[in-house]
Every structure is written in C-alpha cells, then in structure tokens.
Amino acid sequence: AGAGSPGTRDLCTTDTDCPNPPNHCVTDAVCSWGPNQDKPCRPNPPFGGTSPDFGTTSVDCLPVAGANISGNGLDVIYDPLTTEDVTLVPTYTCSYPTFTSSKCVGGLNEGLTCTGPSDCPSGSCNGQCFCPLSPMENVQQRPNQCNNACVGGGNDLMPCSNDGECPGGFCQVGSCRVNVTDTDSCQEGICPTGPNNTSCSVHDFKNCLTNNDCHPPVCSFCDAGETCVSRLSQCFVNSGIERCGSAGPTDRTTVAAFCLPQTNNSTINITAGVAGPGAITQPTTLYYTGF
Question: Do residues 210 and 218 make contact, with C-beta atoms less than 8 angstroms apart?
Fold first, then answer.
C-alpha cells in the first residue's frame, strides 16, 4: 500500500510507511503491475535481476497488454536495423499534383526541377517521393507536408509562392531543411516556414490545444507546469533520409530507414502519412541482469 490514491504503489520498508489501508508494507517478491500483479515472482538470476534504470525485473511479471494498430494491417519491417549509417533517397514520382515533376538530388542544382541527368551536374534527376505506391492504393503521395520556402539568395528560408520572390535563389515547393538543432541523429529535418504543430513543452510527443492538455490528470505522464508550445513541423529532408548509427560493446545506436505500407484505416493513413517513408534511431544500453 502507498500514500497515493488506491491502486498506487510507493516504496516502503515498514508498515508505518503506508498510511492508507491496509497499512501493510509488502516485502515478499511479488509483481507490482500487469496481469500477474501481486502474484509471486522470482527476482534473482536466472529468472530476474536488477538494473539502475529498470529496477528489479522478473520473467514472471508480464507487461500490460497495450493497444496496437496491427489489426489495421500495418506491418513495419526494420530491414536492415544496423549500427551503420542508412539512407533512403527519393526516386518515385509523387501522385500529389504539385510534386509530380522530378528534382535534382545532390550536385550544384540541388532541389531544382529537372527533366534528365544533364540538368543535374554532379547529381541525379529523381522523383520526389521515397516509396512506391500501388495504383490500387487510393492515396495521394507527397514528400512532406511542408510549406514553400526560398532556397539560396537574399530571402533564403523565407516563405514564397514563386521564384520571383527569391532573388538569387528559387522557391522550393514543400521545403524541408536540415534542422541543425536536432542532434539525436543526422539529417533530421524541419519545415522552415511551417506548418506548425502544438505539443507539450517537455513531453513533446503529446499533442495539445491548451496548457491544460499538458497537466495531470488530463495528461497522466506529464510534469506539473508544462505548457502547450507551438513548434515548426518536422519532416524528411527533400534530398534524402539519412540516419547515423554507432557500434559499441554496451552502448550502441541502431538505425533504419524504410517504407511504411498503407493500413486498412484511412484515419491512420492520413494522420501518419502512409504509404510513405519511415525512419528510426534507437539508442541501446546493454545491462547484464542475470537472465
């Protein structure tokens, strides 16, 4: 028993640490949560062990069965998942009208419209989408949801609607640029002219409309004092997706870039932008716990 609301658990050493009924400090080895809550468990090797990040674990304490979207037909394959660097270059023609033309990838004319290799010295003339789309799939593909922005010249990174608004440069449709402030991997992208998304200030994966959406108990895992913050949308850089891994005996980073198929749920397809590209950067620390 603990000091919080019924069902919560707090650390204790004696019964006096538990002011709420039944005022009993459980010192037996039992599962604290999940389908085997309060049932006996084996906390020592080879059935369990203790780590500084996860506390005491046991093979007898199964995780809570959570909701997933596998029933909607989403099959994500991280192939390969590697500690080396991975890339995924746009090569397919997009079906969304604005992005049906080809663009230069790499070289002096990076991002300019092209019709063949000669238009892209030191680069290549490619489609703008990262993944193939079956003619049977009723969805319009585009490389990202970014607004237009000037590339180069005096108005670099400024909003635009045509090349005339970008002296010394050009107006890139759906412009996604490398986000130099995002250093958890490489080639992370951001839409320089929006659109913006609102999310909680600390737990920035949680969408919000007001500050209250970021406060407990509305957001049970949020910290007190979090606010709802507007941020520029993230994206995959137009010239290609890249993720950087690193190898190590105990600390390593595995990465993958892949194509996500369309699901059976149209709401998921629109929200997640699938069929389309995906990427993952997964830091890993290996703990020896005795299993």
Answer: no
